[in-house]
Design a protein that fits this description.
The protein is of the alpha/beta class. The protein has 2 domains: about 5-125, 2-Layer Sandwich (Nucleotidyltransferase, domain 5), CATH 3.30.420; about 165-280, 2-Layer Sandwich (Nucleotidyltransferase, domain 5). About 35% of the residues lie in helices and about 25% in strands. It has 9 helices and 14 strands. The protein has helices at about 50-55, 125-135, 170-180, 195-200, 205-220, 225-245, 245-250, 260-270, 280-295, and strands at about 10-15, 20-25, 30-35, 65-70, 85, 95-100, 105-110, 115, 120, 140-145, 150-155, 160-165, 255, 275-280. The strands form 3 sheets. It has a 6-stranded mixed sheet, with helices on both faces. Strands 12-11-10-13-14 form a 5-stranded mixed sheet, with helices on both faces. A hairpin with a 4-residue loop joins strand 10 (about 140-145) and strand 11. Helix 3 (about 170-180) packs antiparallel against helix 6 and helix 4 packs parallel to helix 6 (about 225-245). The longest helix has 19 residues, at about 225-245. The two termini are about 30 Å apart. The relative contact order is 0.14.
């Protein structure tokens, strides 16, 4: 519990499908943080306020504290819909103010971005883009945000010009846990990643055959689960790089996300001569929410 003289100016909130994470903020300084498994995917609309208060109750003084939130909390199935903003656009726009029953919080939800042709959407990643640009205002190039649904965003003049989503993380999970490969793929990352990246980058049409060879190699050669994991990851990231070549070829590239994921993508890009900058996703999210809060109070 925060002491009376340590109450936050505002509260930052990253509310995804599976998890809720909050930070007590004084300006850009983090005073405290908390998280729970109360993601958007498991909540009815009338449950959001209560779940948020469960985490931040001890941070609230008697007055009203602004809360700035990003992520799936602003989807149609979330607390309240924050409509998408069409690109080209700045990575964050005016937040949607949401009525609350508890007068101690003023809830603001940031909108996501949409692209009409080809159709694409993002919600939450735009705040990470805003955070990266707050730290690197002169960046011109491409941001890659690896995850369940990886985003590749073309950035110019502090705007998202276009973007593309790849379902690589979800495909990995489905193949590793629900396909025949579940008998072969282990939890740890072994050897063979870079080789697998190169195989599908050069010949993406062989992906279906290469995937089954992971299982066959286990049966015939006793390939370790760790090496099977590395190979599956490399094949899928190589496929993603083949699809997004116009985004990273000859461009300045930065990676934003968890260290494990950005390291894998950096290694994959390095096989193609691309040296990408890496940034921590959680830290960048806070910077993006801070930038949005600064706009809110000015």
């Amino acid at each position: 519990m925060l002491q009376e003289n340590s109450y936050p100016d505002w509260i930052a909130c990253d509310w995804g499908t599976s998890n809720l994470r909050v930070w007590a903020m004084r300006g850009s300084e983090v005073l405290a943080e908390a998280k729970s498994g109360d993601g958007m995917g498991g909540l009815a609309r009338d449950e959001f306020e209560g779940k948020l208060l469960n985490l931040i109750e001890n941070w609230l003084p008697s007055g009203t504290t602004p809360v700035v939130a990003c992520g799936m909390v602003g989807s149609r199935q979330g607390w309240a819909e924050a409509p998408y903003v069409a690109v080209p656009a700045a990575p964050y726009s005016t937040a949607v103010k949401v009525p609350t029953k508890d007068s101690r919080i003023a809830m603001h939800i940031l909108p996501g971005l949409k692209q009409e042709n080809p159709p694409d959407v993002m919600r939450g990643e735009e705040t990470q883009i805003a955070g990266f640009l707050a730290e690197n205002p002169n960046f011109d190039g491409v941001l890659c945000l690896p995850g369940t649904h990886s985003k590749w965003a073309h950035i110019s003049a502090v705007e998202v010009v276009s973007f593309q989503t790849q379902m690589t993380g979800e495909l990995f999970s489905l193949l590793a846990k629900s396909s025949v490969l579940r008998h072969s793929v282990g939890a740890d990352l072994g050897e063979g990643f870079a080789e697998a990246v190169s195989e599908t980058l050069s010949k993406p049409e062989v992906i279906a055959a290469k995937l089954f060879q992971i299982r066959a190699s286990d049966l015939l050669k006793g390939t370790s689960g760790a090496n099977a994991h590395a190979r599956l990851s490399g094949l899928l990231i190589g496929l993603e790089l083949a699809a997004t070549r116009p985004y990273w070829l000859g461009q300045n590239v930065a990676l934003v996300g968890s260290t494990s994921l950005t390291s894998s993508y950096a290694q994959a890009l390095e096989t193609q001569g691309v040296l990408a900058v890496q940034a921590d996703g959680a830290e960048i999210t806070i910077k993006g929410l801070t930038a949005a809060y600064s706009e809110l109070v000015t």
